[in-house]
Design brief:
With 309 residues, the chain is an alpha/beta fold. It folds into two domains: 235 residues, Alpha-Beta Barrel (TIM Barrel), CATH 3.20.20.60; 47 residues, no CATH class. It is built from twelve helices and eight strands. An eight-stranded parallel β-barrel has the order 1-2-3-4-5-6-7-8, surrounded by eight helices. Strand 4, helix 6 and strand 5 form a beta-alpha-beta unit. Helix 5 runs parallel beside helix 6. The longest helix has 20 residues. The radius of gyration is 20 Å and the shape is globular. The protein starts with 10 loop residues before the first helix and ends in a 10-residue tail after the last helix. This is Carboxyvinyl-carboxyphosphonate phosphorylmutase. Pfam families: PEP_mutase. It catalyses: (2S,3R)-3-hydroxybutane-1,2,3-tricarboxylate = pyruvate + succinate. GO terms for molecular function: methylisocitrate lyase activity.
C-alpha cells in the first residue's frame, strides 16, 4: 500500500516491485539535471539514476572528488525525482556525508524528496570516483555503522527507500575483503549489493552467486576498470540493476565541444542529427513539458496560453 496517502504506489514501492521480479533487469540511464532527465523520461525509461559525478560536474563545475555536499545532492535529486514521481529514481548518496547521525539525516532527506533508492559506500568522506585509483576506505565497523544508521533512519521516517550497499574495497582488500563488507551490510538491512570496480565477467558471476539471494547492481562506466557489459550480458550474468552514470556526461561532451568549435572556427553552428535542420526552441521546450504545462494552465482557468504559444 502506498505510504503517501494515495492509492498510487510510491516510487520506492515501484522499485521494490521491480526488484521482486527475479527475471527482470532494471536499466537506469544516468542523468544529472532536469534536461537530461526529461530526455530520458520522454523515451519511456522505467527507472532513472542520478550520477554523483554528473551532479558535481554540472552543478559545481568540478571533478568528482568528494566535493558535493548532501545539500547539493539532495536538491538535485529532489528536482529530478519530482519531474515524474511515477518513475523511480536511484540516487548516489556517496558516503552519507559524515558520521552515523549525518547518514541518518541524508537518508531521511532523500526519502522526504521522493528518491526511490540510494547507495552508500565505504570510502572516507573525502572520497573520489570509484573508477579512479588511490581510494581510501573506512573500517568495516564504520561502514556497517553507516548502513545501520541508514536502516534506522528509514524505519523512523514516514516513507521508504531501497538501500544499496556499495563497497570500493575490491581495489585494496581484494575480492574476499569486499565480499565480507557487503555481506555485513546486508546483514544490517541493506537491500541490494553493489561491488564497485568488478574486473571480469567471471568475477561478476561469482559475485552474484556469493551474494544470493540478495539482488546485485552493476555499474557500467565505459573506459573505467569494469567490462562494458551490454544489457543482455548483465542480465545473463544475473545482475538485477544496471546503472549507466556516464551516459549523459559522456555524450554531451563531444556534442557541445563540436558545436563550440563550429561557432569559433566557422562562425556558424551546424545541425545535429536532424535532417540538416536546427532544433527550434519550441521543439526543445516540448521535451521539457511545454505542451503539458500549457494544458494545465488552460484546465485551471488560466488565459495566458488559451490561444497556444
Amino acid at each position: 500500500m502506498a505510504t503517501n496517502g494515495s492509492t498510487r504506489p510510491t516510487a520506492a514501492e515501484k522499485l521494490r516491485g521491480m526488484l521482486a521480479d527475479p527475471k527482470r533487469l532494471i536499466v537506469c540511464p544516468g542523468v544529472y539535471d532536469g534536461y537530461t532527465a526529461r530526455i530520458a523520461l520522454a523515451e519511456g525509461v522505467d527507472c532513472l539514476y542520478m550520477t554523483g559525478a554528473g551532479t558535481t560536474m554540472s552543478r559545481l563545475g568540478m571533478a568528482d572528488m568528494g566535493i558535493a555536499t548532501m545539500n547539493d545532492m539532495r536538491d538535485n535529486a529532489s528536482m529530478i525525482a519530482n519531474i515524474d514521481p511515477d518513475t523511480p529514481l536511484i540516487a548516489d548518496a556517496d558516503t552519507g556525508y559524515g558520521g552515523a547521525i549525518m547518514v541518518g539525516r541524508t537518508v531521511t532527506q532523500y526519502i522526504l524528496v521522493g528518491v526511490a533508492g540510494l547507495h552508500l559506500e565505504d570510502q572516507v568522506v573525502t572520497k573520489r570516483c570509484g573508477h579512479l585509483q588511490g581510494k581510501q576506505l573506512v573500517s568495516v565497523e564504520e561502514y556497517t555503522s553507516r548502513i545501520k544508521a541508514a536502516v534506522m533512519a528509514r524505519s523512523a521516517a514516514r516513507g521508504d527507500i531501497v538501500l544499496i550497499a556499495r563497497t570500493d574495497a575490491l581495489q585494496s582488500l581484494g575480492y574476499s575483503g569486499a565480499l565480507e563488507r557487503l555481506r555485513a551490510a546486508v546483514a544490517e538491512g541493506a537491500d541490494v549489493a553493489f561491488l564497485e570496480g568488478v574486473k571480469t565477467r567471471e568475477q561478476a558471476e561469482q559475485f552474484i552467486k556469493d551474494m544470493a539471494p540478495t539482488p546485485c547492481l552493476f555499474n557500467n562506466v565505459p573506459g573505467g576498470v569494469s567490462p562494458d557489459f551490454s544489457v543482455d550480458e548483465a542480465q545473463t550474468i544475473g545482475y538485477r540493476i544496471a546503472i549507466y552514470p556516464a551516459l549523459g556526461i559522456e555524450v554531451v561532451y563531444p556534442a557541445v565541444k563540436k558545436a563550440i568549435q563550429q561557432l569559433l572556427r566557422g562562425g556558424k553552428v551546424e545541425s545535429v542529427e536532424k535532417d540538416g535542420k536546427r532544433w527550434s526552441p519550441r521543439e526543445l521546450f516540448e521535451v521539457c513539458g511545454l505542451k503539458e504545462s500549457m494544458e494545465f494552465d488552460v484546465k485551471a482557468g488560466g488565459t495566458a496560453y488559451a490561444n497556444g504559444a
